[in-house]
Structure formats: structure tokens, C-alpha cells
Amino acid sequence: MYYKTRFKEITDNNKKTAFQILIGYRKCCFYDKICCNDLTIRVIVKIQNNLRRKKVKMIQNPILPGFNPDPCICRKGDDYYLAVSTFEWFPGIPVYHSRDLKNWELYTHVLTDDEKVDLKKLPSAKGIWAPCLTYCEEEDMFYVVYGVMNSMNARYFDVDNFMICAKDIRGPWSEPVYLHSSGFDASMFHDTNGKKYIVSLEWETREGYEKPGAICMVEYDPAKKEIVGYPKRIWRGGTDRGCIEAPHLTKRGEYYYIMCAEGGTGYNHCVTMGRSGNVWGPYEKDPQNPIVTSVPGESYERQDPDHLKPKYYNPDSILQKSGHGSYVELPTGEVYLVHLCSRPFVPELRCTLGRETAIQKMMWTEDNWLRMADGSNLAKMEVPESSLPEYPVEKTPDFDDFDGEELGNFYYAPRIMPERFADVKARKGYVRLRGQESRTSLNKVSILARKLTSVYARITTKMEFVPEVHQHSAGLILYYDNMNYINLRKYYSETLGQSALSIIHLENGEKTEFLNTRIPVEDKPIYLRLYIEGRKSWFEWSYDGENYQKIGRIFDTTRFSDEYCKYGEFTGTMVGITCADRVLHKKCADFDFFEYKADEIILKEIWTENGYD
């Protein structure tokens, strides 16, 4: 445990502080260990025991920790599927699967052809935005609508929206059908009369008009595979928070419902709803909007297009930035809504893990509005389980020895498919990475990474690599984007006349090579390790995997975040292995294993509505 305290007098204030630490420490705010110094182990144990006695089955949020933003959920029979954004990362659009809404497995990816969807040369945070995954029961067909954001220069937001479909969620998927470029967060609605519609944010660029714009809709002709006419504006939001986006249309009974995100994908984020008897509107606002948020209350921000708005940080909420929702109805009559959220370091308000996916239990009221089941609109850390039978799934492994015939589906690479440079068949029990361009490149980079899901983690690998020139390097990397990373690398040092270890740090485009910590090393197998302990991250190395030596200084984990990084946003921190050959693009490094040990949940039963005894 990370809680190291001395026994002291148990006061009401200590109890309150202990409870706040338990529900926030490393789950939301990642306070320094010193915050626990005035607590007592007896308080923590007492809280734990009281909560365990209640035996309330709960879903722990976030259900998808780490870089998993913009969730969209659908159901086919007993199976639930959830898609999220990937931006510049391949494979694109992960689809998670569950049968109980509590246990989720990474099931497949929608976009696996990096030539059909070319993301090379795109800056960080461009690429695949906000996929909409739907299932049309009448056709027994899955549909995915996604946008490729090409540029945000001068706030023009040049995006191309596409649609693909498949009988099986695992594919094969149809050829992409171009829809329009009117705006982002496009989604598809299948009406009961057989018609289909595309709704999206119409991005506003004109002076004197409210930004970012209004929600627009256009009919889609499946036979001609094109939209019918031009998109028409149908909705300007259910609150005055502004920054409306992420529209989803559904139909229930006599009403069409429009669900949107408002407030910007930052600290004033929320989920809102409206309804109409006609698909084209007019839509009436839910009188209790927003229906889910991290910051209840009213605010007028229609004139401020900034999405972050840190002034709305709510210290009483465990989950921050809650918004961008999508809901699903169960055969039991229960309703659940998934939404994005973040867990920032405090007081810096930096979200190293990026935007994650959480779930809330909902209910329909007698007057046909959707509400949180607990009667509030504040996103919760723990949510009552559904009445569906529990369905355990296989979790992403902590240890990968690369003994399989294929790469694990949990690996990603910036802008190209990992298989372009990573080969598990070249040498049995290893993954061989072929070096390409520098890690700052927007083109072809050899970084094999997985999502950081906790800011308390240990990452280890064993590498064999013999560099021949100074342009050859390979090693371990903590990576936010091409302008922000820390790389422990083995390379050829002309100064030393042999192989060496050193650290290169890129922070908002400024490169620092720590030559004062350079270490000459032999050309034999070497272990590399990265520790992430809250705000502190550092590297170590070893020849035998038992006796490690620290190398370099301690780095600030919080700086790997949307809030700090100047060149990218909307994604999350990744950890992985990497190789570069900036001469011929053919020098290789072999990695024996990749181990990712994350402490994601210390205490599961730590939240009750009635406090603690």
C-alpha cells in the first residue's frame, strides 16, 4: 500500500479527510503521499470494513481507464459493444465488448487499413474523431460513422465524414462512403420507417455568429450512398453552456430524442437532451438539463468557444469533464449511459491518463425524460450493477512474451499499423522492431505502445540491440505525442566509441539530451524499466533483471497531459518500446517481453451516498 502514516488520534476531521483521500487518491486527484500523514490506518480499515459489510454490487468507474474518449454504445441481442476515438493512433476505433456492462474486453478494431485511412503527416490530435457505432436490427447490420480531422488551422476544422457497415462487428467492413465535411461528431440514426439520417455539429467560422455552431441533420440515401441535399440546422442546445457537439438521435415511443454534449470537452462538460414529435423538430429542452455532468448548476458560456474552462473544476466531484454521452436500453428495462470523463492531478488540473470512459445508471421518468437513477445529475464513481448475469471476460495481460503468431490487439502505433514495423515471426519469442524515422516525425515512426491506465505503474522490457552508427537507437518510451516524450535509449556514442544508454526528453518541442547521465553499456541483452509513481517518473536499467540502476533525473508525470502539451490534445499518455534508424530504415531491435504492471484500483468499495460511520 502507498498509505504510510503514524497512528494518531481519530478525530471527525481525520475521518473526513481519510474518506476524501480514499475516494480521490490515485482515482481522481492523485494527491501526494504527504496528504495521508495526518491519517490513521485504523480509520482506513474501518471505512473499508463498513463498506464491505453492505455488500452492494457496484460497477467501478471508469469502466475503460486511460485514453478511451467519446464512447458510443449499442446492443445486439445479449451483446453490448462500445467504440471510442483513436485520433492519430492505429489500429483505429477500438470496439469493447460486454454482456453485463461491468466487465469489458477489447474485442476488435474497425480501422486496420492505414492506406484506406491515411493518417500520415497529420498533427497530433487530428485523425479519427468520435465514432458512432449503431446496430440496425431490421438489416442485421452494424454501422460506423467516423470523421477524419485533417486540420484545425485558423479554427476551420477541415473534416471528412465517412460511413462503413458490416454484418459482423469483427468485419469485414465495407468500403468507406463519403458523407460530408460540414462538421464533426457525425452520427447515424435509423428511423423506424426505414429512413436514415446523419446528424453532426455544423462548424461555424463566420464572425458574429455563435461558435462552435449548431447541430445539423441531413437524410442519407442508402441506395445512392450519398446524402440528400444539404444539412439543415435543427438544434442549438439544451443549456447555455455553449460548445455543443456529439449529437445522437434515438426514438422511443412517440418522441425523437437528441442527446448532445455541451460546455466543451473540459471542466464544464455535460450531457443534455431534447425531444420532438418530428425528426426535424422543433426540439424542446429537457427542463432539468444537463442530465449528467461533473459540475451541476447553470452557466452562460455561449460566447466562449474555449473547450477547457478550468474555472469549472468541481472539487466535490471525483470524475471531471463528464459529458459526450450515449445510452443503451437493456431487455430488462434498465438504461445505462456511457460518457467520457477525466481524473486530473490536483491542483495542476492535468489529466495524464487523458479522457476515459465511465458509465451511469439511468431511468425513464413518467413524463418520458431520461434521468440518472439516483435522482441527481452528478457523475458517480460507483454505479449499481444491472440485473444482467455476470459475464467475466479475459483481461488485457500484464505480461507479453511475444510467443504468439500475432501482436496483441492492445498495441498501437502513431499513424501507421504496428505490423508495418513490428514482427513477432522473425524470431520466436521476440518482437522485432524495424527502425524508421525519428520519434518526432509525423510520418513513419516505430513506436509500439499501449495505453497508460494508471499513474502508478511499472513498465519493463528486455532488449537486444547493437547500434552501429549514432542514428541507430532503441529503447523504452513514455509518450504523449511527437512533441512530448521521454525516451531511455541505447545508441552508438561516437564520443565514447561504443554503445551507450542516455535519455532524450522532448517537452513541447524542445529537446534535451542528458549527456551528464550517459552510461557506456555492453552489446548484450539489457533490461529497461520505467517507474511511474504519481507525479514522479524515472528510468532504471539492468543486465540481469534483478539488480537495477537508476539513470537520469525524475520527471514530472503531470506534464504529459492535454492541459500542458501545446501541440496535441484530446488523447492520452502511452508507454511502449521503440526503434529508430534514421539512415536506412532497416536496423532492428529485438524485445524478449513487455511487462506492464499497473495499480489501477487500491480500494474498490470506497463510495457510499451516506458517507461513513
Structure, described:
- The chain is built from 2 helices and 40 strands.
- By secondary structure, the protein is mainly β.
- Strands 25, 27, 28, 30, 36, 37, 38 and 40 form an 8-stranded antiparallel β-sheet that branches.
- The chain is globular and about 75 Å long.
- The relative contact order is 0.13.
Provide a quick synopsis of the model.
This protein has 613 residues and is mainly β.
Name the shape in a single word: globular
How does the major sheet shape up? Answer: 8 strands, antiparallel
Strand content: 35-45%
Roughly how many Å is the radius of gyration? 24 Å
Supply the key terms.
613 residues; globular; 8-stranded antiparallel β-sheet; mainly beta; 7-stranded antiparallel β-sheet; 42% strand; disordered N terminus; 2 helices
Secondary-structure topology with pairs:
Blueprint: H1 12-24, H2 41-54, E1 58-60, E2 72-76, E3 79-83, E4 89-90, E5 92-98, E6 105-111, E7 127-136, E8 141-151, E9 158-166, E10 177-180, E11 187-190, E12 196-203, E13 213-221, E14 226-235, E15 245-252, E16 255-262, E17 270-276, E18 284-285, E19 292-293, E20 320-329, E21 335-342, E22 356-364, E23 370-372, E24 382-384, E25 399-400, E26 413-414, E27 422-423, E28 431-434, E29 446-451, E30 456-464, E31 472-481, E32 484-493, E33 498-507, E34 510-513, E35 519-520, E36 526-533, E37 536-542, E38 549-556, E39 574-581, E40 588-598
Antiparallel strand pairs: 1-24, 2-3, 3-5, 4-26, 5-6, 7-8, 8-9, 9-10, 11-12, 12-13, 13-14, 15-16, 16-17, 17-18, 17-19, 20-21, 21-22, 22-23, 25-40, 27-28, 28-40, 29-39, 30-36, 30-40, 31-32, 31-39, 32-33, 33-34, 33-35, 36-37, 37-38
